[in-house]
Amino acid sequence: MAPLIFIAGCSSDGAKTSPGGSTGGNSGGASGGPNKKSAAAPATIAITPADGAKSVETDGVLKVDATGGKLTSVVVTDAKGKTVDGQLSSDGIGWKPTVPLANGGAYTVAAKAANADGAEATAQSKFNTKAADDTFVADFNVEPDSTWGVGAIISLKFNAPIKDKAAIERNLKVVSEPAVPGAWSWLKDLDGNDRIDYRPEKYWASGTKVNLKANLTGAKAAPGVYGKQTKDIKFTIGRSLVTTADLKTKHMSVKKDGAEIEDLPISAGGPSFPTWGGTMVVLDKVDGITMDSETVGLGNAYNQKNVRHAVHLTASGTYAHGAPWNDGKFGRQNDSHGCIGLGSSDAKTFFDLVIQGDPVEVVNSTDKMVKPGNGLGGWGVDWATWLKGSALAGNGGAATQAG
């Protein structure tokens, strides 16, 4: 693919000159009389980077400023004529892009400003951006037009170390309808990769429309390492389905829109392999899966073929699933290797009810809490701590109004 080219050039007309040589529209030089209004000073425009600049950083450099007037137009285009989104300051004298520029490209900047008399000034600049030594991408857990439960957490896992986390976070935005407080927080995925997750302070409300905008093309993660993805993902929060698995009573209560609709007997992790406590989130589900203890570091303890109605709760291998081999223990004895086992009929009932994003709150566990990076375990982090996980904490960017 041919590199993008960004062009930017600088020139300024200042105020227009009349045929008689005076500026600002006066026709008699300085002797306009005591009631004659003086001409306004001409507007001038400054574009950074300078015209002809090479190897310009893709983020945080480009800006347009007006003096002696206000900007009336700023258009930035790449070599294919595609415009760059930007924002004018509230006072009208400054403009900056709202997205990074692409690497190895050329951009053109064309700006106009006007002074108090309406006299127009123009400026143009052309420059080239820095080529990337390497690139990174993120694995997004949400997809366009999907429906998630009220415990949905947006998660981006990166395939390269992110050194400048603030630069990446600045280019991520979540908008929701209705608006709710929400924030990004950095953590480590179970496999050790850098990851950033977004959640509201409390569970989402049913019917919420969520829009994730990730402008990572040209975003700088580390020296020489830049992103190459731009995503605009819209998804919906479905009905509220919250499950509480009580490891002491050995029952699982399922509430839909606040009302209990199921009370299912379970057999969770036994004394040697207790089920983790905390809030887990449904990742996916599959009817028929092989569960091999070697894949979760338990040697040859078990190898179950075609496990039915398996609801995936953690990346490390916690499921709620049918466990007919434990018939007689449901509601009476915890005797699994950490999963939440149910009778065949109850497992199908639960499987049919849940969707991705539904929270499963495990209470009265004798083991530690599920870690934030193990699946979507971020609900186990208190809100104040979650906010501190933002790279923009203290700079007005940690807690955002999602909408």
Helix content: under 10%
Helix and strand content put the structural class at: mainly beta
Radius of gyration: 29 Å
Bin the strand percentage: 35-45%
Biggest sheet details: 5 strands, antiparallel
CATH homologous superfamily descriptor of the largest domain: L,D-transpeptidase catalytic domain-like
- What's the number of helices? 3
Mean pLDDT: 89
Strands, helices and their partners?
Blueprint: E1 44-48, E2 63-67, E3 70-77, E4 86-88, E5 94-97, E6 106-114, E7 120-128, E8 134-136, E9 138-140, E10 147-148, E11 154-158, H1 165-169, E12 172-177, E13 180-188, E14 194-200, E15 209-215, E16 220-222, E17 225-227, E18 230-237, E19 241-246, E20 251-256, E21 259-265, E22 278-281, E23 284-286, E24 289-292, E25 303-307, E26 310-312, E27 319-322, E28 340-342, H2 344-353, E29 359-363, H3 383-388, E30 399-402
Parallel strand pairs: 8-17, 10-18, 19-29, 27-28
Antiparallel strand pairs: 1-2, 2-5, 3-6, 4-5, 6-7, 9-11, 11-14, 12-15, 13-14, 13-30, 15-18, 16-17, 19-20, 20-21, 22-29, 23-26, 24-25, 26-27
